[in-house]
Amino acid sequence: MTILHHSCPLCKKNDVETFHQDQRRTFFVCQHCRLVFVSPTQYLSEDDEKSAYDHHQNSPADPNYRKFLSRLFCPLQDRLASNSHGLDFGSGPGPTLSVMFQEIGHTVALYDHFYAHDPVVLEQSYDFITATEVVEHLHDPATILPELWTLLKPGGYFGLMTKLVRDQHAFATWHYKNDLTHVCFFSKFTFEWLADQWHAELEFFHNDVMVFRKRG
């Protein structure tokens, strides 16, 4: 059944249908860009959202966390020129990917809505931008993702990490949807749609890493 009172938070189209429902939330899917999302009426309050992030124990001293981030770090480091300047968007309470890039000679600015709220860094240009386990939390991807793309220099890279929606059956038992801070769920098709909007090159790595390259 088409839901007319919801528009997609990514492409803003109204061609939206119910995708899944559990005891806590209803999930919708956009028939245009295939984003799966929840209604803003089911978002956590800002205080509750930050409280959930405060419990994250990520740290540069944790070798397992470094190994996790290496799935994005490795393909990016192979593509970056020496002494590149990057932005880690959504760096969280324990910035680590930025440290990994700094250790090999790059400079990295940090931005996080809760932990590194410095709007000045969103007025600069970058050779690369990273967002690891971030886009699933975005309340307004239609605004934020294009804004980040404009900060990227021609030839620059935008590296993302997020789990991908496979299909409706798999979604029903997917642990990723159970995190109440997760409100947007991207599929491979959705990222290919974004690449088409941006006229960007796109590569997929593993099951949860995407690297866009800005032409030019």
CATH superfamily: Vaccinia Virus protein VP39
Total count of domains = 1
Q: What quaternary form is this?
A: single chain
CATH class: Alpha Beta
Instruction: Estimate the strand proportion.
Output: 15-25%
CATH fold-level name: Rossmann fold
Number of distinct helices = 6
| Helix percentage range | 25-40%
Largest sheet: 6 strands, mixed
Calculate the mean pLDDT score and round it.
95
CATH architecture: 3-Layer(aba) Sandwich
Q: How far is the first residue's CA from the last residue's CA?
A: 43 Å
Shape, per Cα inertia axes: globular
Rg measurement, Å: 17 Å
Q: How do the strands and helices of this protein lay out in sequence?
A:
Layout: E1 16-21, E2 26-30, E3 36-38, H1 46-54, H2 63-77, E4 85-89, H3 97-102, E5 107-111, E6 126-132, H4 141-151, E7 152-161, H5 168-172, E8 184-185, H6 188-198, E9 201-205, E10 209-213
Parallel strand pairs: 4-5, 4-6, 6-7
Antiparallel strand pairs: 1-2, 2-3, 3-8, 7-10, 9-10
Q: What report would you give on this structure?
A:
By secondary structure, the protein is an alpha/beta fold. The chain has one domain (16-213): Vaccinia Virus protein VP39 (Rossmann fold), CATH 3.40.50. The protein has 6 helices and 10 strands. The chain has helices at residues 46-54, 63-77, 97-102, 141-151, 168-172, 188-198; strands at 16-21, 26-30, 36-38, 85-89, 107-111, 126-132, 152-161, 184-185, 201-205, 209-213. The chain is globular, with a radius of gyration of 17 Å. The protein starts with 15 loop residues before the first strand and ends with a strand.
